[in-house]
Design a protein that fits this description.
The protein has about 110 residues and is mostly helical. It contains 5 helices and 2 strands. It starts with 7 loop residues before the first helix and ends in a 19-residue tail after the last helix. Bound molecules: zinc ion.
Length: about 110
């Protein structure tokens, strides 16, 4: 489960997969800020190999943590339900029309690339 240190060329290869964007949220990502995400986390049997790696921003890498892609999608899809259950400011903002719930569907940036 120990992760190996990537060679510079491997890091660059991972960066190029999404052409400078986070694979998940799609935000623009400077090379120096890229975190290398294990698509299937090592902890649940993912391989420490390039085909299991995607570039991620700090936030996505943090929230994805030990989820695989579908687990991360389910986690994100449940955010609005958790907010409506737990957050009074969110409930008030909805009631006053300050914010609108649009969807629970999550499409990751890498899924929009060919
Ligand atoms: Zn992201």
């Amino acid at each position: 489960m120990k992760r190996r240190k990537l060679k510079i060329q491997e890091r660059q290869q991972v960066y190029k997969i999404c052409e400078g964007h986070c694979a998940y949220c799609g935000c623009k990502l400077d090379y120096k800020d890229m975190q290398v995400d294990h698509v299937t986390p090592l902890r649940i049997g993912g391989k420490d190999e390039l085909h299991n790696m995607l570039p991620a921003c700090r936030s996505c890498n943090h929230y994805k943590a030990t989820f695989d892609v579908e687990g991360y999608r389910r986690y994100l899809s449940g955010i609005s339900q958790r907010l409506i259950r737990d957050s009074i400011p969110y409930q008030v903002a909805i009631r006053f029309g300050l914010i609108k719930h649009i969807t629970d569907e999550v499409t990751f940036y890498f899924e929009t690339l060919d």
